[in-house]
Amino acid sequence: MDAPINAHSFLNFLAYAGTGIGVLVLAAVAVLLITPHRELSLIREGNTAAATAFSGTLIGLALPLHSAISNSVSLFDAAIWGAVSVVVQLFAFLLARLVAPKLSQQITNNQTAAGIFSAGVSISVGLINAAAMTP
């Protein structure tokens, strides 16, 4: 009987998980840098709208990363598709700001509806982005 986990499969897990988490962290930092409001400071202050918006951003980024890793033929392939998904998510993020130009100020003012809208945009684009990554 073969062992369910061996050294090779565990090293692959570490490589893919590390790459996925690394891309997620870099993408989250990119989002934090392009937002006019300071999400982490707002979250520390208890701003629900900022927490909701940023949580949606993380989910929206993680969904296509999941798909990229699941459908990739190699670690390099996963990293490239992960980077593509980040670009698409950042574009959607900027587009949402064009459609709703007061969104950042509303999030700063802790208007929950703005946070929910922002999260919804991120998650819905993330789902479409993930579905589009087919082998």
TrEMBL record:
The chain crosses the membrane at residues 13-34, 46-66, 78-100, 112-132. It comes from the Bacteria. It is found in: Cell membrane. Pfam families: DUF350. Keywords: Cell membrane, Membrane, Transmembrane, Transmembrane helix. Signal peptide: none annotated. It is a multi-pass membrane protein. InterPro entries: DUF350. The keyword ATP-binding does not apply. Belongs to the UPF0719 family. This is DUF350 domain-containing protein. It comes from Lysobacter gummosus. The lineage of its organism: Bacteria, Pseudomonadati, Pseudomonadota, Gammaproteobacteria, Lysobacterales.
